[in-house]
């Protein structure tokens, strides 16, 4: 657990003493699978680091359609935008699995940011990485077809949640097919068709809420 926390953007630049002090100002919270951590439009007063489990970040349109921005796993952070740009939460955070999080009040974080420029720098880096990813996802929505986007999403999930096994990379993403479609920004039918096609070619093995990637190279080429 300590390692997971230390790898989070908040902690990565701090020495041991500072990390212990920062850890002491954080509060541990748990959510059961399906629990809403906060909703889009809420006032935001804290950010979270995932210790265990997965959290999905989603937005919905006025006609009720859902889009997933991201799935956050151990060591990843969310809920910081409403600190840097005070305003309502930009997405709804929901526990995809039972999860354990560390929360840090924005006011507490502000004090740390004033005293520790290295912490501000690593948070800026995390924000910049998020912007890069968002730009790439936007480009893919315009330039890539649905199977290409599905291939990329599976590879991204495999980098973050995959475990190498004898037959390939086993990825427990904990997403339903509907949620996977929301992450890719396409209909469930089109995403299912792409998954079935990859499976019939022997590139992946479909499992409930997971997938084993048997041929990373082929999937990489399809997502390129
Ligand atoms: P905040 O707006 O406080 O609450 C919702 C959180 O979702 C936000 O902070 C970010 O941490 C996260 N978030 C918003 N947009 C994205 C995105 N495009 N990719 C990943 N995470 C995001």
UniProtKB/TrEMBL annotation:
Gene3D superfamilies: Jelly Rolls, Winged helix-like DNA-binding domain superfamily/Winged helix DNA-binding domain. Keywords: cAMP, DNA-binding, Nucleotide-binding, Repressor, Transcription, Transcription regulation. Residues 10-130 form the Cyclic nucleotide-binding domain. One of its GO terms (molecular function) is purine ribonucleotide binding. It holds the Pfam family HTH_Crp_2. One of its GO terms (biological process) is positive regulation of DNA-templated transcription. Residues 144-217 form the HTH crp-type domain. GO terms for cellular component: cytosol. This is Unannotated protein. It comes from freshwater metagenome.
